[in-house]
Amino acid sequence: MNKLEQARQTINVCDENIAQHFEQRMHAVEDVVAFKMENNLPVFDGDREKEVIEKNLAKIKDEKLKPYYREMLVQMMRISKEYQQDIINSSNCKKQAPDSVPRR
Predict the structure, then answer these.
(1) pTM for the predicted model, two decimal places
(2) Rounded CA separation 104/67 (Å)
(3) Separation CA 68–CA 9 (nearest Å)
């Protein structure tokens, strides 16, 4: 196996781990949005996002990778907020089911 194949194999293993962690993270997001809905809290929490970015950037030792990791975090949180909003919208649609709409 040459160096390119070895590097690609390492990337494939990383991608498998990322997929597993992504599912785990998004299931936790479901719990977060459920709490927010129960407590009438907004999806966006700027202070929390700053905290997440700062805390996680500190874990990256290779300085040249930090801007890329930061961007990954920003995009991951964007996806999380989008998913939360989709859950809220879906919940609102269920509340407005045809049986609950007054008839004329």
Answers:
(1) 0.84
(2) 58
(3) 22
Retrieve residue 6's tokens. 């070895």
Beta strands per DSSP E along 20-96: none
Structure letter (DSSP) for residue 103:
P
4-8, 68-72, 79-83, 92-96: which has the minimum mean pLDDT?
92-96
CB of 86 within 8 A of CB of 29?
Answer: no
pLDDT digits (tens, 9 = 90+) for 38-89: 999 999 999 999 999 999 999 999 999 999 999 999 999 999 999 999 999 9
d(CA 43, CA 46) in angstroms, rounded, equals: 10
How far is residue 59's CA from residue 71's CA, in Å, rounded to a whole number? 15
**Can you read off the two tokens belonging to residue 17?**
């781990």
Nearest-angstrom CA–CA distance, 49 and 51: 5
* Interatomic CA distance for residues 70 and 84, integer angstroms: 21
